Amino acid sequence: MEKILVIATGGTIVSTFHKDGLAPGLTIDQLAHYFTHGQEVSVDFKVLMNKDSTNMQPEDWLTMAKVIHENQNQYDRFIITHGTDTMAFTASALSYLLQGIKKTVVITGSQIPVSFKRTDAKKNIRDALTFAQKADLPGVFVVFDGKAIQGTRAVKIRTKSYDAFESINYPYIAFIDGQTVRINFRPEPEKAVFKAHMGICPDVFLLRVFPGLSPVFFDFLKDHTRGLIIESFGNGGLPFEKRSLISGVKELVQKGIPVIITTQCLQEGQDIQLYEVGKRVADAGGITAGDMNTEAIVTKLMWILSQASDLKTVKKMIQTPLAHDLDYI
């Protein structure tokens, strides 16, 4: 009989009403009740934390990763119950921290607490168990609303609907219907391209550009970050007239701070060399991130900066596909 370890971290799935609103409140025994659906598998439970995922921190990703790493020989599969708000960040972070893992790691949760009469939690739990047992795919996946998504490609795009997550710039891995798992896309096995590393550097900053953003902001960043991610316009462009941001990028790069350029557009990635407004960013030292999503870029940069700081090395690692996070530059 296969063994699955369910790691509970809190989230809506175990929330109950408190005086200030919904907050994690169910006990592990109460949650465990919903994992008994005739599955031919041995399921153990571990409460790791009991947080609304809004309160999830990078140090918590390390805690989760270490528990899975330390239990790889004791369990065949892992399921993490987690809040939805930062689930995509956790899925990406674990994909890097557990690079090359041979076991299936599933992250799931719900939009409505499992104890409510109308809830998506029970289905998501059943689907997570079914996918974990039958898909036989190594790596980290988000299972939600009958779909399995590669961990580095999941993005939450809805706040209330059951279909909260979509797979961005990548096919859905599988569809789950009852006890049936229909594999939609089977990724090619990845070889470990970098040495396994269990570390996170949270000293990064995410900047979403808007018309009128003052370049003075970069003066603050020079002394308060080790890495910057810019959500640019369209294909990677930043303004270079009037309130030009190009000089700010150049100054950070000259100081040895990597500046990663992504796009505010969810779909289709970027082509930073296509327009003058993008080419000037690249010439200033901006590092294009192709079709990676922001959640993956943030966590990958944190992981990289915990082991490297040289700009050339950071660029190589960002632009090297890892855990199927990147298809093109």
Automatic annotation (TrEMBL):
Family under the similarity heading: Belongs to the asparaginase 1 family.
Annotated ranges, domain L-asparaginase N-terminal: 3-186
Entries under Pfam families matching the protein: Asparaginase, Asparaginase_C
Source organism of the structure: Sporolactobacillus putidus
Asparaginase/glutaminase C-terminal domain ranges (all copies): 203-317
PANTHER family attached to this UniProt entry: 60 KDA LYSOPHOSPHOLIPASE, L-ASPARAGINASE
Top-level taxon of the source organism: Bacteria
Protein name stated in the entry: L-asparaginase 1
Positions annotated to bind substrate: 53, 84-85
Residues of the active site: 12
GO MF entries: asparaginase activity
UniProt KW keywords: Hydrolase
BP-aspect Gene Ontology terms: amino acid metabolic process
Keyword Hydrolase belongs to the record: yes
